[in-house]
Amino acid sequence: MTDFNKKITVIIPAYNTEKLVKKCVASVLAQDYPADLLEVIVVDDGSTDGTAKILDEMAVEHRNLTVIHKENGGSSSARNVGLLAATGDYVGFVDSDDFVSEDMYSTMMAAAIEHDADMVQASRDEIAEDGSKLPDVVIPPSMITEVAPIEHLRTLLMHTGDASFCTKLTKRSLFTKDMKFPEGELNEDFYLMIHMLEKVNRLIILPQQFYHVFYRTGSNSRKTKEDKDYFPSVFTDIVRNADVALELVKRNHPELTEVAERFGYVQRLDYLLHIPVSKMTKDNEFYNSVVSYVRKNMSSIKRNQYLTGKQKTYLKVLAPAPKLVRKIHAKLRGV
Predict the structure, then answer these.
(1) Which has the closest alpha carbon to 235: 196, 259, 267?
(2) pTM for the full predicted model
């Protein structure tokens, strides 16, 4: 058994999750890690339902739980406020509609100490609203795995890695003034992760699925079937971040350039497959820039060894007339 002497801060941004937040916070407070070394900070991001009241009541019962109330500013803003208040040696994050296993942080900290790691990642599973388990988004390793930061960057660019800070335990000293979550973005974890990896000594990935993602209809990036014209801004953010990643790679890791180019093509394909046809208009500058980029880089797309044949075909078919192709596709599907 590890003799723990490191303090952990877990930051939970919360906004209008009154039906789920108690389970989430309770799962963190129930950790088998020493309570005097576990600091839980919940940042109520201007909730308008019963979330704030539930949190305040829980804070009365738990000495290591601090609740901060602020005006609504988004998840990144709430996380950054939590970081300012954090005093732990390591920091973890949990979204207020998710929950964690009771031995998550003790196991992660033991791995951080044993491997002298700046960052430890737990595996995760995905839970549907009806309680059933969904297919794994990220495949857990079969055993504890040490990963070099550049290799983790490569897996993120190949869509096989996990960019989430919620599955991580990270040294608080890495969250410097220039290493904060970008506010007003929905793909914030990826943006901060690719930059922070430049400072991380090593990443340890655990096979245990300690973190439980709850897929809730109506959350930031999840579209309801009834709202055909709803287009989450996350789809524009992932394209912008693909360009940021490509610049970072060209500057610091040129050997990953083709992998980063592939990432940008796939993100744009995702955008073109999800944007409502009603928004594919001549005055939509961002949409037109995506189409133009794909058309301009078609030769590079055809040569890219990391794109699948299916991805290349989709991009090739969509590039000349994306709106027409999407209309035909919708008709064939009876949508």
Answers:
(1) 267
(2) 0.92
CA–CA distance from 207 to each of 33, 116, 146, 201, 304 (Å)?
Answer: 19, 18, 11, 20, 32
Query: b/e map of 305-332 (b: 16 or more CB within 10 Å)?
Result: eebeeebbebbeebbeebbebbeeeeee
Per-residue pLDDT at 168 exceeds 90: yes
Question: Whole-number mean pLDDT of the chain?
Answer: 94
Query: Which pair of tokens denotes residue 141?
Result: 């390793």
Beta bridge partners of 55: none
Q: Going from the N-terminus, what domains does the chain have, and what CATH number goes with each?
A: 8-214 (3.90.550.10), 234-333 (no CATH)
180 with 99: CB under 8 angstroms? no
| Site of tokens 């950054």 | 80
Q: Which of 75, 112, 109 is nearest to 94 (CA)?
A: 75
Residues 6+ apart with CB under 8 A from 333: none
